[in-house]
Amino acid sequence: MTKLGRLLFVFLLLLCTTQLFADKKKVVEPTLEGEAKVQFDYAFMEGVRCKVLGDLKSAIAYFDQCMKIYNKSAAVRYELSSILVLGEDYTLPLQLMREAVELEPTNIWYNLLLANILQRKSMIEEACKVYDKLILLHPEREDFYIVETDLYSSVEKWDKAINVLDRYEKQFGISEPAIIEKAKLYSKMDDVKNASAEIMKLVKKYPEKTDYLGLLAELYLSHDQEKKGLQLLNKIVKNDPDNGFVRLYLADYYRTKNDTLNTEKYIRSALLNDKVENGLKVQYLLKLLVNQNDANISLDHIYSYVQVLLEKYPEDIAVRTLNADFLKRYNRLEECKGELEFLISKEKNNYLIWEELLMLYNQLEDTTAMYRGGLECLKYFPNEPLPYVMISLPLLIRKDLERAKGYLEQGLDLSPDNSPIKAQFFAYLGEVYYKQDGVEQAFAMFDSTLLINPGDIMTLNNYSYYLSLRNEHLDKAEKMISTALSADPNNSTFLDTYAWVLFKSKNYSLAKFYMRSAIENEKNPSGVLYEHYGDILFMNGEKEEAVKMWQKALEFRDEECGDLKYKIENGLSVDHEK
After folding, report:
1. Which positions does the entry assign to TPR repeats (predicted)?
2. Helix axes 508-520, 492-504, angle to 10 degrees
3. For all residues of the chain together, what is the average pLDDT?
4. Residue among 433, 489, 442, 449 nearest 467 (CA)
């Protein structure tokens, strides 16, 4: 109810401006005649036009002109105030609206703006008095009661909020939201007698709805009247054995009492009851998961309940979705993939499942599934950028550069500005351009990536490495790879890049240290790593060891290696180039 009140309040303010603009013909002041009337009407309409167009400075100037022509206009005061209230000083807008309401006491829009300004100035009780007047003028307007209740509640004037709801009930009769709100307010005042009396109104009006008895029981339990509360809950369970909400509420109650036997009894009776909606069961288990520490329950214990549901409802989408979430938490990624693939086979139009599945393929480095899944996802969601990334990465790895570029450019156009995924598109496009010898375009893409995400360590590494290969901007290259390495100090790729930047900067001794670390941190060193190490050793004067490293690199037949046979026979020149 509180959120509804706030939404209505905002809605009323929007109506305020719209309605007055719609009724612009009514603002002509009856005391004006002749040229003064023409000038006033023109200035007022121009002020409204400028306000609608967003030219507030001009609008204020026109309304000031209106005030000079006729300073008793409530409409002009309203328009000026509705602009000035956008600032931080509400003193003048408040003065203007007090005057406007004094001039036209029954105008609903003037009163609403006055109440809004009073609220902004934290003059809540005075704002409520404005709503009192509005309710007297328009007793049929439910929203006025709701907003006033919300305002009194915001300053913990529970008794006054209840008084407003009493008037609401007198005008509109028994209403579930109003009665429940009154009960909550009485509960905050620790007035269990009146709170229970309110709920009993609903029990008597809707005797077939056991939910209200549940609310009454919850009230008693929250105010240390456990005997009454449990009697009601047990009565509900007896009369309504399929009421899952009450069974799960009882489970929570017994958990707080460390009564494991009854906790298990009520949870399992709810989970296994076919007449209790599976959605309620899943929501309850998610609640346990979110409040795991407070509920004093282990992840394994919660998952045992998920397995109970799985065994009984193996085809239920909500249950399988919950199971996928748990499998991911347990890092059982292959099993999680199976669940998500099952779910997507049933709900191909569910983008959230597609997103989870594609990201899981990426985590598993399953490029074939990424490619196929991305293409399938595009059939249903052609305007989502993620599938374009998932398709382009396998193409990039297979060096199908033109097709990769096509998907990347499409995805880039669909990505929100300055978003992480846009940065990813820039990074991958940079890789494509570099491999197609579009070096300037590639570096521009990398710069764009780092502008959005300065901590993108893969881009920092690759950009740094490419600069080192070209012997360009080595200071910039060293700063970038240092940033990447500080984020992941044992990454052999980053260590290799840092060593290579140092090598190109002729800092051979430090380069040797980092290259040795790169090889030591890599379980399966590549031919390129051994070649680089050989080059560095050679420039450190360790020529025999360098030859050994080049010979080892030769065994890998790595396409990225240089002319190793030449190096083995002739070594490196002083002016070496990679």
Report:
1. 423-456, 527-560
2. 160
3. 89
4. 442
- Topology agreement, domain 1-140 and domain 455-570: yes
Per-residue pLDDT of 513-541, as tens digits, reads 999 999 999 888 888 899 999 999 999 99
Q: Is 118 left (phi over 0), alpha (psi -120 to 50) or beta?
A: alpha
Cβ–Cβ < 8 Å for 28, 60: no
Give me the amino acid identity at 360.
Answer: L
Task: For residue 530, count CB atoms less than 10 angstroms from its CB and return exposed for 0-12, middle for 13-18, buried for 19 or more.
Answer: buried
What are the residue ranges spanned by the domains of the chain? 1-140, 455-570
**For position 7, what pLDDT does the model report?**
29
* C-alpha–C-alpha distance, residues 122 and 154, integer Å: 10
Q: Is 115 left (phi over 0), alpha (psi -120 to 50) or beta?
A: alpha
Predicted TM-score of the model (pTM): 0.66
Count of Cβ atoms closer than 10 Å to residue 544 Cβ: 8
Burial state string for 471-510 with b = 16 or more CB within 10 A and e = fewer than 16: eeebeebbebbebbbeeeeebbbbbbbbbbbbbbbebbee
User: What's at 34, amino acid-wise?
Assistant: G
User: What tens digit of pLDDT does each residue of 262-278 get?
Assistant: 899 989 999 999 988 99
Within its chain, how far is the Cα of 211 from the centroid?
A: 33
The architecture in CATH of the region 455-570 reads Alpha Horseshoe (1.25)
What does the pLDDT look like over 458-508, one tens digit per residue?
A: 999 999 999 999 999 999 999 999 999 999 999 999 999 999 999 999 999
pLDDT more than 70, % of the chain: 93
Could you give the angle at which helices 508-520 and 527-539 cross, rounded to 10 degrees?
150
Is the pLDDT at 22 greater than 50? The verdict is no
Mean pLDDT to the nearest integer, 351-380: 96
Q: Choose among 484, 493, 577, 491: nearest CA to 539.
A: 577
Distance between CA atoms of 171 and 192, rounded to whole angstroms? 25
